[in-house]
Specification:
The chain is built from no helices and 11 strands. By secondary structure, it is mostly beta strands.
C-alpha cells in the first residue's frame, strides 16, 4: 500500500501562482507515473498533468503553457507548479500514482483545495 501526502493548496488571486507537492511512501518496487487530477462539484475528475518514469509529461489542453509537472524520483515526490491561475482553475486537486509491487497498482491522495478568487 502506497500513501500519498499532498500539500500546497490555498487561496490565490487570478494571475497568481501556487505549487502543489505530493510525496509517496510505502512498499513499492517502482513508480510508473505520477499525476495530478482535479475535480469540481458536480463534475467528473479530470486529468491535469502526468509525469512518467521516462519521456515527456503530458498536459491537459486547458493548462498547457501555465502549469508544469515535475518529479523528484529520489524523494518519490511530484510537484505541480501552477502559474497564471484563473478562477476556472478552482477545484480540489488530487495526486495519483501508478506503481508496481507484484503487479500494477494505483493510489490517490486525499485532495487539496485550490481557490482562485479576487
Amino acid at each position: 500500500q502506497v500513501q500519498l501526502v499532498e500539500s500546497g493548496g490555498g487561496l490565490v488571486q487570478p494571475g497568481g501562482s501556487l505549487r502543489l507537492s505530493c510525496a509517496a511512501s510505502g512498499t513499492m518496487f517502482s513508480i510508473n507515473a505520477m499525476a495530478w487530477y482535479r475535480q469540481v462539484p458536480g463534475k467528473e475528475r479530470e486529468l491535469v498533468a502526468r509525469a512518467f518514469s521516462v519521456g515527456s509529461p503530458n498536459y491537459a489542453d486547458f493548462v498547457k503553457g501555465r502549469f508544469t509537472i515535475s518529479r523528484d524520483n529520489a524523494k518519490n515526490t511530484v510537484y505541480l507548479q501552477m502559474d497564471s491561475l484563473k478562477p476556472e482553475d478552482t477545484a480540489v486537486y488530487y495526486c495519483n500514482v501508478i506503481y508496481t509491487y507484484y503487479g500494477t497498482h494505483e493510489s490517490w491522495g486525499q485532495g487539496t483545495q485550490v481557490t482562485v478568487s479576487s
